[in-house]
Amino acid sequence: MSAAEEWSDEEQSLLEQALAQFAGISDVKEKWKAVSKAVGSRNARACAERFKACREVALRLKQQEAEGGQDDGKAAGAEAEAARDKAEREEAEAQAAQEEAEAEAKAEAEAAREAAEAETRDAERQRADAKFEAARKEAKEKDAQEKAEREEAAAQQAKGGNKKAAEKSPANEQKAVVDAGGVEEEVVMDEGQRRAADMRRQIEANREKLRLRDEEEAKKKAKKAAQDEEAAKAAQAAKKAAEAKLAKDKKALEEAKAAKAQVPGSVPAGSKGTGKGSGPAGYGSQAAVAGKGATSTQPAGKGGLAGKGGSATSQPVAEPKAPTKPSASSPEYKGWGQKPAAASGPSPAAGPKAAAGPKAGAGPKAAAPQAPQGPVPDSWDD
What we know:
Order of helices and strands: HHHHHEEH
Largest sheet: 2 strands, antiparallel
Pfam families: Myb_DNA-binding (PF00249)
Strand content: under 5%
Protein name: Myb-like domain-containing protein
Number of strands: 2
Distance between the termini: 155 Å
Domain Myb-like: 7-52
Strand order of the largest sheet: 1-2
Region (Disordered): 64-382
Helix content: 55-70%
Structural class: mainly alpha
Number of helices: 6
InterPro entries: Homeodomain-like_sf, SANT/Myb
Shape: elongated
């Protein structure tokens, strides 16, 4: 039996002692861990396999002894059954220990993998930091180089401007005139002084530009304000002229109405005639011609066309116009062409009664009223 040969007598003895010692532990994993610690040189899995092999040997021996005798066989069978049950339990314990060992190995492998991944992430982060630092350093160097180039270009530009100014000067040198108590002295300026002088001149020029711009804006604002004021004045004057013209036209219209009302023969609105004739003498029927609401131009006195004192000038009577027939859709079409019903009172066409003549025998009778001249309309609706 190879499994038994691999174990020494001391290890076998330690295993048996450990099994007897920790037989009361119900937890299989804890039991085999304790057995492995007691043996010392074997792990839990090896101890379980050794126990399994020993159990199989014991079962075979018991089976052989059972075949030798009936009594011995029964006893051996019972023992074998018990040993088999125990072996099954121990086998289950060994399997559990094996699963635990596999789980531990798997956990260790997972931990190692996580550690490797963490190291990889750290390395990548370090590489990214190094790359960022290199890019930042490169950008900083580039900025410094560009700044140096700008300063050099500015210096060259200032130098060129100073050179042009020196060429324009009579002495062909960069000099400044200093007035000290009325005494002018020429002082040769260095590069820094020339640049400062150029800067001052540029500042003064900018100030002058700003001043001129402000003055121009102020002039524009003043001009716009004056234009707005003139426009407002013109609008006010136009408004006043329109009001004056309207008042003048209104006054002229009123004067025209008043003059028209004063024309002889016109009948002012609301006036009422007397109905009396104005012949110089005698009685007449001319009063009927000047009906109600009209005035007569004859001199005062009773008379008529054939009265005493001769003939009298009669009031001209306007010739009535024939009414125009309205259209069928007009509201005035209703009743067109129908004669009005006879009124109970006196006819308006008769005019006022003639003035009472003198007593019988005093003079001739008054003439009959004359009919109005012109065509008589068919309808009096209008």
